[in-house]
Amino acid sequence: MKRTLIRGLLNVLPMALSLWLFWSLFASLDELGKLMLSTVGQQSLFTGAGFLLVVMLVFIAGLLFSVSPIVWLWNWVERQLMRFPLFKSVYGSIRDIASLMNRDPSKPKNQQTVLVKQANGGYVVGFIMTETAPQPLLDALPEGEWVPVLFQLSYQMAGVTSLVKREDLIMVDWSFEEAMRFNLTAGISKPADENGEQH
């Protein structure tokens, strides 16, 4: 009885939470769109009209950002706001996360999964996020080809970045997404096969 209940919970809960999250996002954007329509004296014609309006405005913004004067103006406003330390910290973090999510699948991915040997003889899974470290760090380090390696912490989006010599890295033929899932869940979550079964 208990085992069956847990098995049902483990299968239903992720789907239910995912659907609830996407529905909440849809409802929030729909309400925002309805608010914008009401400010110009228009009524929402159907459920989802506000959501479609927000999507359309975001699409138009994407088109505008392909025009050089708009990009220059936006960059200027961004530079002015970045003078405020609190705004710089919050905005910079959100922008970095958005940039990480906006990866072009047609371009080669820079993220390489690696193993790094520890002092006790064990190995830690890490990720090369970029091939070059900042010059001030390279100037302060001893000679060698140093690479920034991210060590993700289990059950957290946070991680620790270490500089490791390339010669001390073991390259692993493992996708960034699967290796990240392994690190985030401490190996509990495993990729599903084509039939959707867990290995």
TrEMBL record:
Q: Which UniProt keywords apply?
A: Membrane, Transmembrane, Transmembrane helix
**Transmembrane region positions?**
12-29, 49-74
What's the domain of life for this entry?
Bacteria
Q: What is this protein called?
A: DUF502 domain-containing protein
Q: What species was this sequence derived from?
A: Shewanella mangrovi
